[in-house]
Specification:
Elements: H1 17-30, H2 38-44, H3 53-68, E1 73-74, E2 87-94, E3 105-112, E4 115-123, H4 131-155, E5 164-167, H5 170-177, H6 189-200, E6 205-208, H7 225-234, E7 237-238, H8 240-244
Helix pairs in contact: 4-5, 4-6
InterPro entries: DNA/RNA_pol_sf (IPR043502)
Organism: Cajanus cajan
Protein name: Copia protein
């Protein structure tokens, strides 16, 4: 998608909705090894019932991008078996930017050591009344996934350092550590107590990360080409031949 672009339900109807659904359905499979297109595919998937010409243009843009990067894929780097693994999650939310229903988008990348192992870009089920609420919902979802991966690896006898969850919203990070429940945050009680319990028990660490280092930006909004390519490299999405034979 073009940087800053937003898709709406209004416009000229696309004349072949069956083709639209078929192509977008195929693109969903592509996100299994191409996490950098997850946000764009998630967006065009929201208009399956009544696609517009503008939505089809975005689909074709995704296809052109994939055609130009056919050899790219998710590259995994081996690590020494004697060392402990680190589990790190980058979580983010784009607050109320959907012009159709003002719901926010939650997103996260989870790394095991240097390798990306889990990611998602999803529209939240409820409208968030503040950016902190939107970010905290995304944080709670990421914590749930991190704990599941941690439990799985412990069963496999894999040694892990304390997992770390990184968020670029300072209010959200403070809320995960603050034992005082404010009246303005009572509607988020379940998520707040769930995350705070894990932080207090030192099951994981929630820390702030500057926005310019937030990898999950790639899953919450349409970015400029320069920013997109910069973050794509952080996901280890590349042409393997380029990594074996650097220029």
């Amino acid at each position: 998608m073009i940087g800053g672009q937003q898709l709406a339900k209004t416009g000229t109807l696309f004349d072949d909705p069956t083709l639209y659904r078929s192509v977008v359905g195929a693109l969903q499979y592509a996100t299994i090894t191409r996490p950098e297109i997850a946000f764009s595919v998630n967006k065009v998937s929201q208009f399956m019932c009544s696609p517009m010409e503008e939505h089809w243009k975005v689909v074709k843009r995704i296809l052109r991008y994939l055609k130009g990067t056919l050899k790219h894929g998710l590259v995994f780097t081996p690590t020494r078996s004697s060392s402990s693994f680190s589990l790190t999650a980058f979580t983010d939310a784009d607050w109320a930017t959907d012009p159709n229903d003002r719901r926010s988008t939650s997103a996260a990348y989870i790394y095991l050591g240097p390798n990306l192992v889990s990611w998602w870009s999803k529209k939240q089920l409820l409208v968030a009344r503040s950016s902190t609420e939107a970010e905290y919902r995304a944080l709670a979802q990421a914590v749930t996934e991190v704990l599941w991966i941690q439990s799985l690896l412990q069963e496999l006898k894999v040694r892990l350092n304390t997992p770390m969850v990184l968020c670029d919203n300072q209010s959200t990070v403070a809320l995960s550590h603050n034992p005082v429940l404010h009246s303005r945050s009572k509607h988020m009680e379940l998520d707040i107590f769930f995350v705070r319990e894990k932080v207090i028990s030192k099951a994981l660490v929630v820390s702030h990360i500057p926005s310019q280092h937030q990898y999950a930006d790639l899953l919450t909004k349409a970015l400029s080409p320069k920013r997109f390519l910069s973050l794509r490299s952080k996901l280890n999405v590349a042409d393997p031949s380029d990594m074996l034979h650097p220029p």
